[in-house]
Amino acid sequence: MLKIVKASLIVTAATVGFAMPAQADINEALANICTIVQADDKGELRKKMRTVQSDYRMKLRDYYDGITCNGQSLIRTALLSNAVETGTLMVKKMPSRTLSSPEQDGKTLSAWIAEQGLDSSPIAAELQERL
Predict the structure, then answer these.
(1) Distance between the two ends of the chain, CA-based, in angstroms?
(2) CA distance 54 to 57
(3) What confidence tens digit (pLDDT) does each residue in 68-113 have?
């Protein structure tokens, strides 16, 4: 009887010790995406997008609307930071219907770009090609 109790305690301890840690939530995974976009680190942005896609089965279009950087969307942040590499990558990865729909402030990206005078940006040119 004592051997059975000892064996069950050892099995329980081993099971608890080898249990997989819980995955962090999506907010932690996307915590520094604004910094990556502002730094124009295309490689790191690709890596972050791949990680989120493999861990959470979410593509950029799934979480784009939920992320703001100082009140601006990711593409607007790229435009304001002159982050051409990350901005064009995001424009290419987003569906055209999302790019042409109004954002949180009610303005489309095209209207906002014209209002801000950022028409000469390569990101704006890529956006116009997609639309």
Answers:
(1) 74
(2) 5
(3) 888 888 888 898 888 899 989 988 888 888 888 888 888 888 888 8
Q: For 1-55, write each residue's pLDDT tens digit.
A: 555 645 454 555 555 444 444 345 777 777 788 888 889 888 998 998 888 888 8
The structure tokens listed for 9 are 């305690």
Q: How far apart are CA 44 and CA 88, in angstroms?
A: 14
Q: What is the pTM (predicted TM-score) of this model?
A: 0.72
CA distance 30 to 10: 39
State the amino acid at position 68 in one-letter form: T
pLDDT digits (tens, 9 = 90+) for 22-32: 345 777 777 78
Q: Residue 2 contacts by C-beta under 8 Å, 6 or more apart in sequence? A: none
2 residue type, one letter? L
Provide the angle, in degrees to the nearest 10, between the axes of the packed helices 122-130 and 109-116.
Answer: 150
Residue 93: closest CA among 41, 58, 55: 58
Sequence letter at residue 115: E
